[in-house]
Fold:
Amino acid sequence: MSGTLAEKVWDAHVVRRAEGEPDLLYIDLHLIHEVTSPQAFDGLRLAGRTVRRPDLTLATEDHNVPTTPGPITDLVSKTQVDTLRRNCEEFGVRLFPMGHAEQGIVHVVGPQRGLSQPGMTIVCGDSHTSTHGAFGALAFGIGTSEVEHVLATQTLPLKPFKTMAINVEGELQPGVTAKDITLAVIAKIGTGGGQGYVLEYRGSAIRALSMEARMTVCNMSIEAGARAGMIAPDQTTFDYLKGRENAPQGADWDEAVAAWQHLCSDDDAVFDAEVDLNATTLTPFVTWGTNPGQGLPLGESVPDPETMGDDNEKAAAQHALDYMGLTAGTPLREIRVDTVFVGSCTNGRIEDLRAAADIVKGHKVADGVRMLVVPGSARVRLQAEEEGLDKVFTAAGAEWRLAGCSMCLGMNPDQLAPGERSASTSNRNFEGRQGKGGRTHLVSPLVAAATALRGTLSSPADLVDLVDAGAFEGSK
Amino acid sequence: MDAFTTHTGIGVPLRRSNVDTDQIIPAVYLKRVTRTGFEDGLFAAWRKDETFILNNPSYAAGSVLVAGSDFGTGSSREHAVWALMNYGFRVVLSSRFADIFRGNSGKQGLLTAQLAQDDIELIWKYLENEPGSAVTVDLVSRTVTAGDIVAPFEVDDYTRWRLLEGLDDISLTLRHEQDVTEFESRRPAYKPSTTVA
Structure:
């Protein structure tokens, strides 16, 4: 019987199937962090239960950690982190704490160790777990009750997801990245468009992406409302995994690759929905509103709510403009920012830092702009420093930080002040997401870097007076 | 988990769509390590606005939230459900819910009843014209009653059964522990372990 990639991975993990009940699905890897786990461990303790498979569970500290040296000073943050440490100790779960060479954002740590592999089921109490789908894994965010359920049973009762093919054909122009693909997809299908679906990204533009770029695309699937995003594994995937410490070794590797090669949607597989996107005509994308679906090509202007669908949509758009302090008709390129943030589980990997560094190299961050560069993990930080990227950023006047979720969400000291505006490589532009009253424009690392230099939302192609940006002409 | 059959309480018309979980409870409240006491964080940003619906004394004791479409989008934080329940809500009505939020709700005993948008509009008007009116949500017959309005709602059979019986998930799964053990014996050897290297 033919099937989609998502269906194949699902079927291979069904422990129990009964009429009228959800499937009981086995979970290959459970990632945990300090925010969504305390109440789950508390639940285990109350019921006298243990962690069934500590060897399939891994914890990191990320959401609360400060990205400047020193201990956590916020008492509540400290309580969460201390609670995680106590729980991991008590229940025998491996933890990468602050200061550890392997610490970092949970969705950066799993892949870089080779833990996220094709055909696996991966869960975490964090919606951006969809990141790991880049490897052809079925990876999705869960709530704290489900975290407790997986800790206790290594399974989850779930109803099958629907499948949606996102076909991205063509070749990206210089200066256009995976982030622009994902922002364009979300703008096209809306923040609810993926509801109930696993998105499978396909097509020549996706095949041409590196693993890190694929992670960026899958990471933001949740912003379209989808449960997960997936990309069928191929040689790019195998090359990335080979030799990583948690990847199969020796004969196991050969057996694994042989199995992974079958992990793709069959030619005659039927998706519940299909969406097409032309990569060739894509240009850098930025958001103007307060949800990730409110985005437009950088060359356009702030939209007029009056031109939008129904009354609810008009009101929502007007509310967004009011919050963002924007006027309809203003060219997006004229929007001035106070802060540029490069980092997060969306764009905090080494390639993202390299891309941003390439742009700022030899230049200065514009007056009045603060640029924060936050590696996604301690390992990414170390690698960036070995390549001299830290020096490129600090020479340009940017701040080079320790690994963590940082300004992606207002849970640690890195926040926007009320009314401040950022160009951010993170994933959510919700009201208050980066700090109370903060205004967020989601962008790619290239746009973030160019914006830092000019002070207004910009693409590398706008830097022609600053740098030899001929290579980026196509992105204007 | 308490069993849910029928609930009658004050209806709160929340005329907003795309209410994400950052609005239901901002990230700053996520730092707690307990399961209770999140009611102060519910809609924290909006409650600072005195015209916000829950600041109207007629609705302040509400237990049935009547929301716009795409309720509960964004972050998977279950704290959103705790905040709603700690505040006193037992039911949320909407024409569409975000998946993770809906899953989280079912597990905690918060009923997410999906109604046609037209019915939501009718109930909004009724509750705005008659502030403080009660809404009855009957899970047995899957209907919502508000004044003269009687509207059907959707909830999947399994969640409905679980809510009606008040059954918790883990005990249900542990009844099939043998199946889990058998599955584990068939897993390929190349699957990774977090405890090596």
User: Anything to note?
Assistant: Chain B has a mean pLDDT of 94.
